[in-house]
Amino acid sequence: MENRETRWWWVRHAPVPNTVRIYGQSDVDSDCSDTEAFQALAQQLPRRAIWLTSNLSRTHQTAAAILAAMDQKSRPREQPLAIPEFAEQNLGQWQGLVRTEFFAKRGGATYPFWFGPADERAPGGESFNDVVNRVGAAFLRLTKEYAGQDIVSVAHGGSIKAALAVALGLDPNAALAFAVDNCSVTRIDRLATKSDGDFWRVAMVNHRPWAHTASKTITSNTAPLA
Questions:
Q1: pTM of the full predicted structure?
Q2: H/E/C letters for each residue in 91-109?
């Protein structure tokens, strides 16, 4: 029985310094000053992998910081390929609002893990269901395109949760319950066999290779940060 394993190494981008306002798909910068974190990621991630990002700057900056921490021979020859479908959820008119004021006005109507339940579409933007459909289509397409390879994808909390929803066949609301911290690694493997069809395996979620001591922390996102 032939087994062709494709391994996705999803990395959430580095922290955004100013989280007072909701940013969603706004193109904000990330703080890549924690060299220890990027050295740990560089040691954890596979060599000779396909590298992807979303189209937003914070993923480009994070990928560049990880690659800079790798030895020259381990870095890919080409720059990471930007995949627009892997962008964070477009939160429309919610983007730019002060978080505390947004949640205070919504009262008990908010979903505890996100800005709202998966089927609620932000005015002028997307629902998380939309994100699952958008990310999922590109996720499956690229899995076939790069079958049998390691793929490092530096993306966003929402897009990583969407990939988990697709791989595990989860209701999108259930997928929102996953914790995905900044700079954490989530690995999703596709096992393709000729006789038994395709299977997905989740090897790790929210793995933080930089948190090797109790005192080492980057960000603990107990509230939606997008």
A1: 0.92
A2: CHHHCCCEHHHHHHHHHHH
* Residue reference for tokens 């090897």: 203
Six-digit token string for 186: 């989530």
54/33 Cα distance (integer angstroms): 20
Question: Nearest 5 degrees, angle CA 37-CA 41-CA 43?
Answer: 120
219, amino acid identity? T
Burial class (CB in 10 A: 0-12, 13-18, 19+), 226: buried
DSSP assignment letter at 21: B
**The pair of three-digit structure tokens given for residue 182, joined into one six-digit string:** 């900044």
Task: Give the whole-angstrom CA distance, residue 187 versus residue 168.
Answer: 13
Which residue in 220, 188, 184 sits closest to 14, CA to CA?
A: 184
Q: What is the mean pLDDT of each run of 10 residues along the chain (226 residues)?
A: 80 96 97 95 93 98 96 83 98 96 82 91 98 98 95 98 97 96 97 76 95 55 63
Strands 50-53 and 150-155: parallel
Q: Where are the domains of the chain?
A: 3-207
Neighbours of 196 (CB within 10 A): 10
* Residues 151 and 52 sit within 8 Å (Cβ to Cβ): yes
CATH 1.10.150.120 fits 3-207, yes or no: no
